[in-house]
Every structure is written in structure tokens, then in C-alpha cells.
Amino acid sequence: SASSQPYRTSYHFQPPKNWMNDPNGPMIYKGLYHLFYQYNPKGAVWGNIVWGHSTSKDLVNWTPHKVAIYPSQPSDINGTWSGSATILPDGKPAILYTGINPLNQQVQNLAIPKNPSDPYLIEWVKSPNNPLMAPTPENQINASSFRDPTTAWRGVDGRWKVIVGSKINRKGLAYLYRSKDFVYWIKAKHPLHSAKNTGMWECVDFFPVSANSPVGVEMSVLGSDFKYVLKASLDDTKHDCYTIGEYDHVKDRYTPDEGSVEGDPGLRYDYGKFYASKTFFDSAKNRRLLWGWLNESSSVSDDIKKGWAGIQAIPRVVWLDKSGKQLVQWPIQEIEKLRVNPVHLPSQYLKGGSVVEVPGVTASQADVEITFKVSDFSKAEVLDPSWTNPQLLCSRKGGSVRGSLGPFGLLVLASKGMQEYTSVFFRIFKGQNKHVVLMCSDQSRSSLNPDNDKTMYGAFVDVDPVHEQLSLRSLIDHSVVESFGGHGKNCISARVYPMLAINEAAHLYAFNNGSEAVTITRLSAWSMKKAHIN
Ligand code: DQQ
After folding, report:
1. Which entry of 22, 148, 264, 442 is annotated as an active-site residue?
2. Pfam families given for it (predicted)?
3. Most exposed: 108, 166, 177, 253, by fewest CB within 10 Å?
């Protein structure tokens, strides 16, 4: 129940109990969305990994199915790890995933539906040819760092291509394999891409984005209207980092655009907690959707006590920003059907040092959008040129540290007496020749329980506050706050575990802890209904 389980989410995907990590094999098949996930059927910690499985008509409500893929042959007897689905030309799906063999080597396997006319794809059969890709003395692949095959794509030469993450010493890379029949795979001489000093690349993802439109595209598009995104989940820092670049379809080489930073720090999908993510092309709505795992920030013993760990972020639509230099993400529109009891506050002046409550919403389960207008920049604090690390800047200047233009934003999951709150806010600085916007998510006061990781998160947002208003949206769901700044130019997800600000005792406020006034031009909040999840 809600009172004994105050941290269970109401509209974020999670299994009824136990451990969940990476999203696997997302796809749409016969009009149904499928999500598989790394799952421990035996407990709330990582281990005994199988593929949990659920389907949905709307990406909001989910029906559970039996475990789809589990250890059953030598090539996966010690674990069925992450992988991806590919829709073949005949419309049927195929799954490539990593198996752990009896020697504890990582190898790549194929599974196909037993009965493709079943839209639920309940039963999966494994290829008798498994493993299809494996480390050998000849190929010199590191057998403990060779995993997580992507969705495959068909090249201009008619052959299938797929990439698998790895490392050679400190160099992270994506091995490329080619096949004529999806069963017999040959490793290419060159990886698709590699980058020095980035460590192991887990859960690589590689996909095209339209250069001039937010419409999503599938893997096999050709031409100059598309850029490519290569994402790696960096095992060293547990961050999902990406670059934007070009893909040479003939040489099968990816080249990041000039000026793009490889590895960490670099561009991230999310500057909070968000890992092992994966996209897929939603052919029903022509969009590219992103799934990502939000791990707990609580202690292992608290996870065991509550009996579960891990949720999935609300699926996000991903597209290329007009600048061509970064992605933009926005929660799927479908989630808005859970919105009830809208509260719209009138446009108002928010004086320095003020707090306004947003009344009438269930603040522990809400969706809120707020937009700020700043008119006077004369008092903006000067950005010290040494302040290049936004997360560090956020930790030095948390929500309770007064500034001039900011901090202003939201106090979410707040207790009545403010013993607990999570603040999500902006600060505006005067940079060299423009204003710089910092967005932070400050968990330091989120809970009276000292056993949680309360690291502050932050990033610079590429918006010009002189010409644009500053928008912030937060999806609040008991123990998660997913925040989107600048209409999705910047995302920060946080896991928090208040002890007082739970269920009906949670409150929501807008605040301005700067000395200068700002104007709230829009504040809309909704209570969120509970979704049917598993
Ligand atoms: N999780 C899986 C691996 C992957 C890692 C194992 C990323 O396949 O590299 O559960 O979180």
C-alpha cells in the first residue's frame, strides 16, 4: 500500500517487486509496444539476470508477461544480458543479446519469436547457431568487455550491420559486425568508432536524426538530411554520453562533428541519474523514443527492505535541436492523459526571497510546468571563467544559497515545515559576451534519512534568457523527479526518499531565492492519476 511503500512510483514503469536495470529490446510490433528489461527474479539486488517483459497499447499502462529470455543454453547459461530488437524486412522481430557462457565470456546471441502471429510475443526461441559473435584468440576481443548489441540496420550493400560495445585498455569502442543472413556475422576490420580514455562502452546506441525536423526516422535512411547520434553508457562514470556526427555508409565509419566532446564530460541525455538507455523508432507515430534506467539513490539495505530497486524514466521523444549541436527530449505526449485537476496560477511577479505554494495538486504525484521571464539583467552575477563544471557550481551554490538572478524554480516533494524539499532551479550569470543559464537539481535537503546519495546535479542550458523565457517542467512521482529545462534542452532526473513529504503530506512551491525579482508567466500543475503498470 501507499503508506507502507511511500517510494513506489505510480506512473513510472517498474515490476511488482525485485531488481530491474537496463531497458532491453524496445519495439512496436503489430501495434503493441514491447519493453523487456534486465531483471532479477530472486531479489532486490543485481544478479540472476533474465529478460522481464511487458507490453502496452499506449506506453502508459503496461501488462506483464512471463520472463521472455532466460539462461537455457551454453551460450547464455551464466546470464542473459542486454540487447536490442530489430524488425526484419518480413516484419518479424529478432533479438540480439549478450549471453554469459560457461567460461564467463561475453558472447552475442540471437532469439526469435516462436509464434510471430502472437502480438504479445510471449515465447522466444534461441538460434541453434548461438553464439553468433564471440571473443577468440584471433580477434583479440576482451571477453569480459564485449556486450550489448544494438538494433541492426541494413546497409547500402544489402548486408546487415550491428555494433557491440567494448574497450581495449582505456579506449572505448564499438565493434562492427556484418551479415548477409542475420545468423553468420563477420567482424569488420575497423570499429564503427572508438575514443581514447573513455573506458568500457556499455549499451551503445546508434541512430539517425533528421537535420531539419523533429520527426523520427528508422535506421536505413540515406542522404544528407540526416545526422547520426552515437551514444555510449560509460561504465566508469555511469553516464549516458553522446556525440552527433556523420556516418559513412560505405566505409561504415562514424565521425563526430568538429568541436564535439567525446566521453565524459560531454553531451549527456540527462545530467542526473539515467543510464543504459536505448532508443527505438516508433513507426506508428514516426518518432524516436528513448527509454532509460533510473537507479536508486538509497542504500542497498533500504532497497532490500522495500523489496525492489530500479525504475524506468518516462519514455522521451528525441530529436535534433535547431542548432544541430545537441538533442532535445520531451516526455511522450501520452503521459498527459494521466493529468487531472489542472491548477493554473495567474502570471505573477516573484519578488526576491519569496515562496508561493501551488495549491490543490497531489504534490507527490504531479506534472508541473513553469515559465519565468527575466527583465533586468543588470545585477547578474559574473561567471568566473574557472566555473566550467556546472555540477560543481550547483553544489557550491545550492538552492539555499542566495544569488542575484536566481536561484528561482520549484521546490518539490516539500514538507510543510520545509524540513525536507528537493529544489530544481535556474541561476543566470553574466558570461564573456552572453548570459549563461545554469540549471540545478538539489537533493541535499530531500530527506531526513542520512543513508541516501544526495549528490547535486547540474548543467548549463543553451538558452538566451534575454530573448527567451526560461521554462521548466518536472514530473514528480513519489521517489523520482524528472526535470526538463529550456523545453527539453536539458534534462535532470533525481531519485529522492523523503520521510515527511510523502503521499498527502507532500507540497509543491515556486520560489525565488535571488535578490532580483522575476516574473512567472505561466504556472500549470496537474495531479497525475495512477497508471496500470504490471
Ligand atoms: N547491464 C547489463 C549489461 C550492461 C549493463 C547487465 C549496463 O549487459 O552492460 O545487467 O547497465
Report:
1. 22
2. Glyco_hydro_32C, Glyco_hydro_32N
3. 253
